Amino acid sequence: MPGLEQFRNFSIVAHVDHGKSTLADRILELTGAVDPRDMRAQYLDSMDLERERGITIKAQNVRLNWAGHILHLIDTPGHVDFGYEVSRSLAACEGALLLVDASQGIEAQTLANCYLALEHDLTIVAALNKIDLPAAEPDRVAGEIEHVLGIPADEILQISAKTGEGVPALLDALVARIPAPKGDADAPLQALMFDSIYDAYRGVVSSVRVFNGTLTSGARLRYVQAKANHDAEEIGVRLPVPTPVAALGPGEVGYLIAGIKDVGQARVGETVTTVAHPAEELPGYRDPKPMVFCGLYPVDGDEYAELRESLEKLRLNDSSFTYEPETSGALGFGFRCGFLGLLHMEIVRERLEREYDLSLVATAPNVEYQLELLDGTISIVDNPSAMPTPNEIASIEEPYVNVTVLTPTEYIGSIMELCQQRRGDMTRMEYLSEERVELVYVLPLAEIVMDFFDQLKSRTKGYASLDYEPIGYRPSNLSKVDVLLNNVPVDAFSTIVHRDRAYDYGKRMTEKLRELIPRQLFDVPIQAAVGGRIIARETVKAKRKDVIAKCYGGDISRKRKLLDRQKEGKKRMKQIGRVEVPQEAFVAALRLDD
Amino acid sequence: MPTGVYVHIPFCAARCDYCDFATWTDRAHLVDAYVDACVRDVEQRALKPVDTVFFGGGTPSLLPADQLTRILDAIPRANGAEVSVECNPDSVDADKFRAYVDAGVNRVSFGVQSMRPHVLVALGRTHDPDNVARAVDAARTAGIERYNLDLIYGTPGESLDDWSTTLDAALALEPGHVSAYALTVEPGTPMGKDVAAGERAAPDDDDQATKYELADDRLTAAGLPWYEVSNWARPGDECRHNLIYWLGGDYVAIGCAAHGASFTEDGAVRRWWNVRTPERYVDAITTGSSAEAGDEFLTDAARAGEAAVLALRTAGGIKLPLPLADPSRVVSCVDDLGAAGLLERAGDRVVLTRRGRLLGNEAAARLLGAMEQPPSPVGTR
Lengths: 594, 381
Description:
The structure holds two protein chains of two kinds.
Chain A: E1 7-14, H1 20-30, H2 48-53, E2 60-66, E3 69-75, H3 83-91, E4 95-101, H4 108-119, E5 123-129, H5 138-149, E6 157-158, H6 167-177, E7 190-199, E8 203-212, E9 215-216, E10 220-223, E11 228-231, E12 234-238, E13 242-245, E14 247-248, E15 253-257, E16 271-274, E17 292-298, H7 304-317, E18 322-328, E19 332-339, H8 342-355, E20 360-362, E21 369-373, E22 378-381, E23 393-408, H9 412-421, E24 425-431, E25 436-444, H10 445-459, E26 465-475, E27 478-485, E28 488-489, E29 495-498, H11 502-516, E30 524-530, E31 533-540, H12 556-572, E32 574-576, E33 579-581, H13 583-590
Chain B: E1 4-9, H1 31-45, E2 50-57, H2 65-74, E3 77-87, H3 94-103, E4 107-113, H4 117-123, H5 129-141, E5 146-153, H6 160-172, E6 177-182, H7 190-196, H8 205-221, E7 226-228, E8 231-233, H9 240-247, E9 251-254, E10 259-263, E11 269-274, H10 278-286, E12 292-298, H11 300-312, E13 318-319, H12 327-339, E14 343-346, E15 349-352, H13 354-358, H14 360-371
Parallel strand pairs in B: 1-2, 1-9, 2-3, 3-4, 4-5, 5-6
Antiparallel strand pairs in B: 6-8, 7-8, 10-11, 11-12, 13-15, 14-15
């Protein structure tokens, strides 16, 4: 068995597009882990979605051999929504490789994750990637890194993951600079679970890092948080092909299969010990907490049962989203779902549509509000249509976040304008270099949830990057805006916005619906209301003509088919009071863009 | 129920921008063979005398009179049979009408469309409005007292005044029958392509509704009440041939792209149609094979629904209870449509109101929905 001093455990911290997956590919090749014949691009990103979006959603790990040492590379999720998962991956390491695109400079999330690594006392090895590109400015970017992280510019390596230039030297530096893990092989077992995936054949496969003791095949294990016991059916290491081993000692990283059928029973951050000699729990466990909510409905009401089944299956794989049945007058039967963040929401929705072949309508995303009612009760509301009327509410609090934006200086004005529109308060502004600046704002999460990312991207031509972290609830002056169709409220369009923006929302939504709702046999008023007061109104005028002009011998078959279609179309209409609305109108109205 | 023959003449001098009928402008060389084929088709069928004959097109009046009358001569007709010919005001004269009358034609239908030159241009029509008056005069002089004027309203660019002028000018010609159609843009026509490409405005529903109401007012006041959604006539001057389509009689299809219908004793129907091009029609008939390109059978229930929505377009309306439908569902639908102002009851009949005529598809689709469920069986076995 190799000794502790031979191990080096590290994560790669990098922004989307800065070349993390390409570097991982090069490392797999250089260390001989993957035969060049079996090599495919982005080897470690196994989900289609990960490859397409160029992001890592699930943590992966691989064991590598380099210069007489054993390296465990832990590939972390690279997005703001998965901050907690990143923190667990970092907790499993002694070092972090900070990878920065030499032409773009460090990005907000990378910086946030780097601070996180420093908090975990990780040794940071910085490298500039893509130095083969003509646009590369290694000196400027190295200066920036030195300025914000205090890493001396002359210690920063320069590589090209694409060509492989500098990668062997990088591996040497990782071995030389990152400390070997510490741990006591004879102490009670203490292993950290930093990822779990669901495999249809094997059940839950967890990634673990052993800190103390020895994880042995066949041992009776105790999952501390889940308060459950399981047998270690198989333990092994990924080379990257999963290879069973008899035991994993301190400092080692590998996988664990224990006959679990639900990832909710093997959560990220779980401490694994033995029933025979239970050890103390490792610090830092947190229950995943949904921050963003939306209703998910099948476009075709008949697919409700399939949607429920798919959500159940998906949750085996991702225990961090929540769902519960919900009924909407406009959209029928569906589910109110909670997500870690916006990207997480998009991923879940896309996986449902893609992997389970469902067609879904998502309501506008919202956050969770804390209400104090006049009778003194505290109420949590994650669905605008469940909001009590204003005369029952004493106060409302909404979640706030600390937002960090890194941007080229030329966009400062535009970003400040955006943040101000979104009720932001600037708390800091710092120049990282002459060209780049860090802006820190306190913003309501609800404002980010709307379309903040898109706005930020379009205002900065994609150059600004964003990170945010929750900082708790604060009182806000909020209004619920209801939308009424022919005087009947349509729950799917209820929303909670700051009082100053209620009119805007009401006007925009009523105008949109006027365009989308087909003319009926009578005038249909569309109104937006706050607490019974109408703030915007549009009218869909009654239709006056719907008849084919000619109906002679040759037209009869065609006319019959047309009327049959019209008749069938009526069956698919949602009935809101007396108004018939095609499902597509709701779908279109809920689209956030424009 | 009377029976009829429809003869399709697929030749035109020019094609109108909105037209999606089976018609050609470059097939003059086929005319003789086509007429031969029609005659042979009629003869092979050994028809019993029919009550109506309708020459439609295309432009039947483009045929030399003797060609058209060759076909007519071959069709056995009952006493007092109605024989109609669609005419373009540009391609008729007194001689032609005299020949028609001699052969038994007693009704003509003029494609007028508009009396405003700029509207005619927008429609891609070639005739001069003055030709209409000349043509009507010639027909009357030849002894044809029953004539229809076809009008189109709602062409983009046509003002309410333009339409009013067209109606006045049409009524000044003292027609016993007027058909007025909302301009309908069909995909694949020159107009349809222009509209799809955004190069031409699409007709506006509200504008067309207003013009329909104006037409209905003027025509009714002139003694031509409506008898079908797009048709108005002096009482007794209704087109008997077209009533066969709407009220469910047999009609025989002669010529390319023509449609026919034959009913069985029990009320089911077979609808059929001929090959689309004149070449293929001539080929089929001369080689002794069938010119039919396809057909469909309607079950009793489907036919009951079709019969109801066709009858609903006429001033006679529908009669309750409707066959093969749940009476309570139908009554409740009729009541709803009555409350919405689309239908009114006249004794045991239910008839579209003027608003209902403009929303005829909506009314029909709802009625079909109500007729879908079969009546619940009375009593138990």
